Amino acid sequence: MTPTTAPRSAFATMAMRSYEAFARMSIGRAFSSWIGRLSGGFIILLVLTAVFAPWIAPFDFAAQNLMNANQPPAWPHLLGTDEFGRDVLSRVIYGARTSLSVSATAIGISITAGMILGAAAGYFGGLFERVVMTVVDLTWSFPDILIALIFVAIIGPGLTSTTFAIAIAYLAQFTRLTRAQIVRLKRETFIEATINLGAKPRHVLLRHLMPNAIAPVIVVGMLAIGDGIVLEATLGFFGLGAQPPTPSWGGMMSSGTAQLFLSPWVIIFPGVVVAVTVIAVNLFGDELIRALDIRDRLRGA
Amino acid sequence: MANLLEVRDLSKRFTSPGGPFKKARSMHAVNGVSFDLPKGRVIGVVGESGCGKSTLARLILRLIEPSGGAVLFEGEDLLAKPPAQMRALRADMQMVFQDPYSAIDPRYTVARAVIEPFEVQGRKPEASVDEEVATLLEMVGLNPGLASSFPHQISGGQKQRVGIARALALRPSLLVLDEPTASLDVSVQAQIIGLLETLRDELGLTYLFISHDLSLVKYFCDEILVMYLGRVVEALPDTDAPARHPYTKTLMDSTFEPDPKKRRLIAPLEGEVPSPFDLPPGCAFAERCPHATDICRTDTPALAANGGHAVACHHPI
Amino acid sequence: MLQVRDLGVAFGPIQPLSGVSFSIERGETLGIVGESGSGKSLTAMSVMGLLPLQGGRITDGSIAFDGMELTTLPENAYRKLRGGRIGLITQNPMTSLDPLKKIGIQVDAVAILHLNMTAKQARSRTVEILGTLRIPEPALICDRYPHQMSGGMKQRIVIAMALAADPDVLIADEPTTALDVTVQAQIIRLLDDLVKERDLALVLITHDMSVVAQTCDKVVVMYAGRAIEHGPVEAIFDAPQHPYTQALIGCIPRGLDGDTKLEGIPGTVPTVQNYPDGCPFHPRCTRAQDICSTTDPAFVVHEQSAAACHFAGAA
User: Fold this and answer.
1) In chain C, where are the structural domains located?
2) Most CB within 10 Å of its CB: which of A35, A149, C106, C232?
3) C178 contacts in B (CB within 8 Å)?
4) Do A11 and B133 touch (CB under 8 A)?
5) Which CATH class is domain C2-85+165-255+263-308?
6) How far is Cα C205 from Cα C212, in angstroms, rounded to an integer?
7) ipTM, two decimals
8) Residues 6+ apart with CB under 8 A from B127
9) What are phi and psi of B157, to 5 degrees?
């Protein structure tokens, strides 16, 4: 990226800060309703839990204690123990780490690749655009699970497969969304004005098209993380995701099925957490859409 | 007076693609336009919707690639320039756009928008960035304190001034104004026009002024080109010149005076502007013209220079 | 025929219109002129009783139509008047017509509804009206859809719909703003002819002073929700009393007087939330004194016109 040749000045810095404040202000509006506060609050809590897991979890998630197996929720195991005597609460907390990091990484990869492809397709158009979109749409026609299974077959089960599977599964969505934004923005007068100043395509893309195209992508990305968590849990349920002893919500639910009538808490708690997480993500995503006022831009994808 | 701009036989053809169920159609948005723009003059291009004036503005600045013809800027053929040279040349020929509401990136502050030309052209302002921004804003009559504002925080008139400041940042010699006041209130329009007049005198600018408002063009411009369906039908050498083309006469008759004692008698004009895709042969105005004869429907009249007052008509008034 | 007195309109806590008065008789053309945000469209909506649709209500004043008081009229009675004896032509013909119905059906509907005609009678009336509006081949046009028509044609059809019920008053809200200049001239001429032929009362709302000069008998100048000057058209243009009117006329580019330099009005029109105290124009007025920012000016009469200004008079 070509650095600016005009020197950074107090004005420019203040300008950047004002822009950031404005962006924060809009996102801040998502917290103005109680739905926004609740769901946003839950998400923040979840992220903090995942980050500070080692400090929060009361027990080592892998510590087995067969004498204490299948204990119902009671002190000190607030959510009970599983068939190996491992503390369910600690495993749920560390499971958050797994789910969130896998999902966030995967969606991060997906957004990056999707935005690059979508922006290029939208900006250059023509045959290039058609080729890119056709290839990307092909990925869209595969069910997520199938893609995951293909990866598992090639690489083997584990977090890497899960990550790539989720990334590929959502690539089409981000590519389409970015392309739709770029195509819409290309027609705006300020783009014409920038070209008229003598700007190279790189400047137009990076300074004007991308920054204006980001907002809907970020929001969809958020919602996709929610989906990714479910996908990760699904794969984990089939034993294809995180491998033991790494805890994952899906894996816990899977092993919990065997004990369903003996110690139902092993499957219920991770299940509830997954459900609440997805609901919170979706609700907050809606609030974000309303706050950033981009509902119309999301129809184009 | 040297010509800043020479336009020769400029044309732009648009084709709507055919398919299995419809034929491909083409039309000329701009058809064989030629004129000279001497340095320091203001030429107005006036016409109604579909006449091609906005397309003409963009062809001249090479924002759209012409299908034919030549554009000579300070003697050099713009259409022969490779992209890098063209980009550098753009610093000298700028445009002020019709819609101030979308002409500035909504994420850019006023300061950033106004200093962007330097960034894009890889130049540094003589003074510091802040000083340059303040100078530019003052030049267009804006309070420098607005530098950190966003477009949505300022009024339409102020936005348009920012657009003008941005266009003038690199001190171009040519300014193309595409209906710069069409979306502004009358009182704000007058402010902007006053500003443009002052700037022209102070900076020695040359203007190409596109508008649908004939009274505004008559006030602001030295010469007037009248366009109809892609062609120049008349070139008035000064604003008092009488209309010689029937369409120009209709246009003048349709432009009301702000004086109840000077009410116009509006003659009925049949029909509407025809679609540019299915143009009948001959003069494009023939089917609506009260003076049309057979030759008008077969031969397209060329723009004939008439001692400075060119008309494209078989039966000029 | 139509007399509006001291009209005040509110949307929630905001008062976008106050103290608006004007009157119009049959055969007259009244021009309501003002820039954006002056409240002219709101005035039209108020007369048509369409305010509740947008969440507004009339707070003061009266609207008297042919002896009837409209501000207290119940909705079902209003519905009979709307589109019937009082017609409305809006700015954008593109959105006034139903894209899914043929033109003939839409115009017929007016006569069927308001004049209790049968479909056949309504259709012949439609063809007749379209003919008087100089729409070529009206019988064929009836079978076409709006998207097949040009802007000028659509506007004529909208006018036909307004005329079909034989109105006494026609309110035209910026009827030509979206049209080309030559088409505008045709529509203006059409409206002029209609006023003369049918003895209509035409309320023409516009931002274009030149249109007002061309076609109106009386003028009301609006600014920031108030009617700040009114009078016969000659008086308004020859001897405007209010500083805003004078400045507004000074903003119009005149081709012939090359010496008169265009003077804008510094500042911007205040938004509805920020109407100034006292006279709404005082922040931009060259004559403003202290009293202007505190006290609402009363109307000062000068011959046949009146201006709401503490310092009304020639420039």
Assistant:
1) 2-85+165-255+263-308
2) C106
3) none
4) yes
5) alpha beta
6) 9
7) 0.87
8) B135
9) -65, -40
